[in-house]
Every structure is written in structure tokens, then in C-alpha cells.
What we know:
The protein is an alpha/beta fold. Helix content is about 45%, strand content about 15%. Helix 5 (about 145-160) runs antiparallel to helix 6 (about 160-185) and helix 6 packs parallel to helix 13 (about 300-310).
Amino acid sequence: MKKFLLGCIIALIAVLVVGCGTNDEGEENENSEVETVTVEHELGTSDVMKNPEKIVVFDMGSLDTLDKLGIEVTGVPQSSMPSYLDKYTGDEYENVGGLKEPDFEKIAEIDPDLIIISDRQSELYDQLEELSTTIHLGVDTANYMESFENNVKTIGEIFEKETEVEEALQDIEATIEETKEKVNESRNNGLVILANDDKISAYGPSSRFGIIHDVIGIPAVDEGIEVSTHGQNVSFEYVVEQNPDLLYVIDRGAAIGEGESAAKTIVENPLMERSKAMQNDDIYYLSPDYWYLSGGGLISVEEMVKEIAESLS
């Protein structure tokens, strides 16, 4: 009888040991299933799962990069889509509201693995973070290339596309260097203005469009332009007084879908006939898709540099 009881006890211990081992192994497998990447961004530090499947993107530059890398997304703000990314307005993608007014109910319904935002949504970060891991990948205009490269490398790490990102960045750097050579040969200065209805604002170094001066190297005709998101309000008298060799124009109305571009009619007025830029046919209308809506993406940054290169040919 004692032998029988002893055998039962030994058998029970063996079952418990095996059970505990199986549970530990299960927990270990469960923990090892989800790899994460620690992302430090402007609004905090986030642990992001690798290769998330359901992605909501509010930052158009990041959507541009994801598109370049062949990474599918789930939801986007469809009303503010650059024309070259208009496939994302299709029924296969969820509409998650506007750039400044996200549809929180739709986002909750999607239950995303990751939300990517930029400055336009930064005030809503805490609310979005309650729905899912949220990271800010907007471009710091004062350190354009550094922040742009950090952003795309972050995306590359999350989706294990580091090699593709590195190759794309090398191509962009080569295009920048070629364009800088043209700048050195031309020795022309420049001015960037945003046309908004019948008003214009100017942008200089370290500004939203400062890549023209800070990265590509075109000297600013006015180094003292106020740095702000909306630019410095100026008049056409100011433009004629500064008299830049090259005038770059971005049409806000065309960017936000307020009809056909009217910038040419506004800018090329009788007063501007006194300017070198108009006299020499050196007024260039930059793509609002790239410059106003989706700057900071692997596609847009290369196209932006190419547009400036063409103006120097």
C-alpha cells in the first residue's frame, strides 16, 4: 500500500512539473511573438510592435514613405490626399476624418496597431494614444534633413525595410549634391512665397519651405524673414523691393482643393513686371502636393529637390 501511495505521489509531482513547464513555455512563446521597436519622437517615447498590420496614417509624408516601401495602410484622412496618392481615397481604405478633426469612432472601430501623426494632430495626441500606440513623425523644419532621415529610418526599422530606406536616402543625397553644384554655378538668390487667395506670405531659412535655402543652398534674398508656420505676411511691393533672381510660388488653394490654380494670375501682375524674376521668366510654381501636403516623404523630398534642380537648368 505504501508503495502504491508513493507511486501516486511521484506521478502527481511529475504531472505538476510537466504542467508548469508547459505553462512557462507557453508564456515564453506568447511573449516572444510580439517584437517591439522603441521610438523616441517629439511627443514621447513609444514601444511600437514590429510589422503592425492595421495602420492609421495622418501624416502625408509618412504615407508617402509607406507607399514608396510598398507597405499597406488601413485608414487615412481621405479629404486631404495629394493627387499622386489618390489611390488611398478608394473604398478599400477607411476614411478616418480630417487632418485636424479625426473620426475617433471610426479609428476605434478599426482598432489599429499603430497611428502615425504630425503637427496638425499633435494637440490630439493623448486622445489618439488612448486608442492605440501613436507616434509623431512630423519634420522639424529647423533640422529638415536630419529629422526627415530619422523619420524614414524609424519606419524602416518598424517594418524591417532598413535596406530599402538606406538605398532611397542615398539616391536623394545624390540628387541634392547634383543640385548644389547647379546652385554654385548659377549664384542666384531666391525667395519662396505662398499664395493664398489674393494674399501672399514669405518663407526663409529654417522655415516650412527652408529646404530650398538650408539644404539645397540657394541664398535667401532676405535672411530676416520671420519663421512661422504661416509665413511672414508680405506684399508684392516687398517682393519687387527684394527683387530675387528666382521666385518660387506655392499655391495653397490648389493644395487644399479650392479649384484650379489661381497663383499665376495673382503673382504675375503689372507691379511684378518690374521684378527680375518676371522679366527673366524665373518664376516657378512648385507642386503643392509635395511642398504643402506631403513634404518629408521618400517620394516627395526627392521630387522637391528635382523641381529646384529644374529651375536652375
